[in-house]
Amino acid sequence: MNILIAGNMGYIGPVLVQHLKNNYPDSRIIGFDIGYFSHCLTTTGPLPEIMIDKQVFGDIRHFPDELLEGIDVVINLAAISNDPMGKTFEDITLEINYRSCINLAKKARQAGVKHFVYASSCSMYGAADDFPKTEEATLNPLTAYARSKVFAEKDLQALARENFLITCLRFSTACGFSPRLRLDLVLNDFVAGAITSKKINILSDGTPWRAMIHVKDMSRAIEWASIRARENGGTFVAVNVGSNAWNHQIKTVALEVQKLIPETQVSLNEDAPADKRSYRVNFSKFEQLAPDFQPHFNLERTIKDLQEGLTGIGFNDPHFRESSLIRLKVLNRFQQKRILDQDLSWLPIAASKT
Ligand SMILES: NC(=O)c1ccc[n+]([C@@H]2O[C@H](COP(=O)([O-])OP(=O)(O)OC[C@H]3O[C@@H](n4cnc5c(N)ncnc54)[C@H](O)[C@@H]3O)[C@@H](O)[C@H]2O)c1
């Protein structure tokens, strides 16, 4: 199997590549990434990209057609990938997450690629904690990031064909350890706070609902989408990916971390404005379509995984919310130093103040 992964050098990419190489040792994997977070490593081991057969640095906004020659599966992870970044870089978010994704899919179809896998998001359900959302529920995208996912799915649907299967995986909020860990994700933030300062500062009043999934389980879902038969979902399918057992209120998640990392104090922000993201998700369709690819990790196991990973690298930065493990901080700093321009394109080295 020849696989191209766009956006492979982020949080999910390295875990996915390891998973695919473990399960398909003969596969050939090409990585394509602009490299915004290439230096944001949380491993004492070698660079994750040594597992890849070929790493290409480039911008998905100018994707080179020739990389698609002989490719069977395209997995698109390249994105401005959370709400705070989407708010700061609204137009660029649409350009990268939506328009560039559609262009990539068109080129992939033209090149004879058989499977196109898009990393979508449950955030398109917005603020709606009345009942767990199925795929048929009304979408309520409240942020630029969520809108980019809705637009991409809609246009992708029109591109699917008998010999070009498209799968949009509407992921829950990711969590779990990775060689490029992110601490701008709720559970990862809680565990990092508990480890470094014995404190969890919940930014909301703790009531919002959030569905979560471990990065290793995301990788298993991507594997399913890369190999599924047309009979299993049709030429186009958008499916919620997570587990019905993993819909929790934020305060429940914090209390579980406190239980496993004792003496941790939990503080709520009762005065915080209502969290825009609060929804429960129904994962029955994913259960039915992919019974052999269901999530393995639960909350307890994920907290232990994060704890082991962070202590394993000697992580002890109590100011991690300002660190390079927060994606928006990384992009802001590159812009301040004139390494990235206003469009998030790399500037020539001479323009940067190093
Ligand atoms: N992490 C989550 O909670 C979550 C949940 C649902 C869906 N997703 C989606 O999964 C995908 C991967 O998420 P992640 O957490 O690994 O994100 P990430 O931000 O860690 O990684 C995204 C990667 O895309 C690359 N990229 C960004 N713009 C690019 C461009 N113009 N050209 C080429 N590469 C570019 C970045 O350099 C980065 O390596 C994203 O589409 C994201 O929206 C993530």
UniProtKB/TrEMBL annotation:
Annotated ranges, domain NAD-dependent epimerase/dehydratase: 3-242
Cited InterPro entries: Epimerase_deHydtase, Lipid_A_modif_metabolic_enz, NAD(P)-bd_dom_sf
Pfam families in the record: Epimerase
Top-level division of the source organism's lineage: Bacteria
Name this polypeptide is given: SDR family oxidoreductase
Source organism per UniProt: Cyclobacterium plantarum
